[in-house]
Amino acid sequence: MTWRVENTVTVAGRVPEPSATKRGARLVLAVCCTSVFLGNLNNTVLNVALPAMQRDLHSPLSGLQWTTDAYLIALAALLMLAGSAGDRLGRRRVFQTGLALFTLGSLLCGLAPGLSWLIACRVLQAVGASMLNPVAMSIITNTFTEPRERARAIGVWGAVMGVAMAVGPLVGGVLVQAAGWRSIFWLNLPIGVAALICAARFIPESRAPHPRRADPVGQLLVIALLGTLTYAVIEGPSTGWTSPLTLGCLVAAPVALVALIRYERQRTEPLVDLEVFRDAGFSGAGAMAVLSFFVLGGFLFLNTLYLQNERGLGALDAGLYLLPMAILNIVTSQLSGRLTANLGPRLPLLLAGAATTLGGALFAVADAETSNGLLFPAYCLIGAGVGLANTPVTNAAMAGIPKERAGVAAAIISTGRQFGQALGVAVLGAVLTTGLHHRGAGYVQAVRPAYWIITACGAAIVLLTLVTTARRLPPAAPTVTLPQRPAQKSVT
Predict the structure, then answer these.
(1) CA angle 429, 433, 437 (to 5 degrees)
(2) Angle at 156 between CA 154 and CA 161, to 5 degrees
(3) For residue 441, what pLDDT is reported?
(4) Which residue has the higher pLDDT, 254 or 30?
(5) Whole-angstrom Cα distance, residue 383 to residue 213?
(6) b/e per residue, 35-58, with b = 16+ CB within 10 A?
(7) pLDDT in tens, 129-155
(8) Tens digit of pLDDT for each residue in 373-406?
(9) Which residue among 127, 153, 158, 475 is least packed, with the fewest CB closer than 10 Å?
(10) Residue 354, CB half-sphere, CA atoms under 13 Å: how many?
(11) Where do the structural domains in the chain lie, given as residue ranges?
(12) Which of 191, 197, 202 is nearest to 25 (CA)?
């Protein structure tokens, strides 16, 4: 028996009873949330293990940045391809392929003999992970078609994402303390296998009625843009900002961006559908996704290193120190889902921006890391800011997008999240490295500019919310009809 999913090609079968449909939808949501939990736990569980990796693999700070960002950049670069591939080849098929590759990559990461091997295996992990989040969001969007039900489902999805990111440092601390840093990759194996089996059993195959064609040139330009920009930011402090390689990457990144925009505008079915950015809500949500995850990635990177390298805490104690941040993230993710479903995204996003701004200011102005009395409230504020932002960002982005473009639109937002997280690690890590190179500068002085950047990100979220979001949820979420491109402009 299969239940029907809107805007899909489905297997013929009898129409199920409403109760069966609801059960089926919940099972689909559960499997999708498991994959989201797996992918996002992997993003943050690694942070607490970084000092242990540094000692074991004799890695410089830039090596730790690459261990994190190789995964995030590969993930961000491939998300849009995965979203369109799911619409074209079958969402369940692509979803299962992603789970298999992610699980295999995790196995190889746990066996990696050195830093270069670990980074390469992290890229393989990312190839699999790129097929999880956007395809899962597309499955959810097409399964829950009523606006408020969809908002609640996205709220659950966002809450699971928040829980995974929040508990990552604590889970990582427990595993590293008990079994070493390689155990954080072994954790993925049973979860990945279980999710793979459940996907085959419970998720119906579905495709978009008019899937997009592949866009290899656009894909290469996206990889060039993200890769060169990240390389320049990470390696600039050590190789020199005026070195030929750094300057070459700094020039190549904007050239790739301009080429990508010009090329995609000429395609009938582009990899990056620039037309969706005509919707102010989508554009604002995309920018806020980048900012929110920039804060999350950079903040966790800085603080796990600080707690272990500067305060001398073990991995488990560092995870426990970050527990208030995790708890506030979980609580506010749930609250944010309810607020978004009932009132729309504006209020939770304003609260998210305000909490992030205040948390960053406690570090930038009051040096919160030097006193537990300020450190824990600041952690709570940053956790609340990230937790409040996740669900309304997704809801605001998808509200005005036609369902047949749900896969590509969800992939763009997911790309913004992952690239924002990678950029946070790269930029704030580079700021710290540059500050530490100044003679006589201690950690607190070196890291202070990074916290000013976090404060500015929170203020920007508030401003973007005021400009791009409606005051309340509309009675029926309208769909924007995006203009069709003339066929004669197609580039083959």
Answers:
(1) 170
(2) 90
(3) 65
(4) 254
(5) 40
(6) bbbbbbbbbbbbbbbbbbbbeebe
(7) 888 877 887 788 777 777 777 777 877
(8) 899 999 999 999 988 988 788 777 777 666 666 6
(9) 475
(10) 7
(11) 19-215+267-480
(12) 202
Written as six digits, the tokens of 4 are 């029907």
- Helix H or strand E encompassing 147: helix 147-179
* Cα 440 to Cα 229: distance, rounded to the nearest angstrom: 30
Tokens 């155990």 identify what position?
Answer: 183
pTM of the model: 0.78
Architecture of domain 19-215+267-480: Up-down Bundle (1.20)
- Provide the terminal-to-terminal Cα distance of the chain, rounded to the nearest Å: 41
Rounded Cα–Cα distance for residues 388 and 352 (Å): 5
Structure tokens at 395: 């809801």
Residue with the two structure tokens 């929110």: 292
Size of the chain, expressed as the number of residues it contains:
492
pLDDT band at 349 (very low <50, low <70, confident <90, very high): very high
Q: Tokens for 250?
A: 């700094």
Task: Estimate to the nearest angstrom the gap between the alpha carbon of 180 and the chain centroid.
Answer: 26
Residue reference for tokens 């129409």? 15
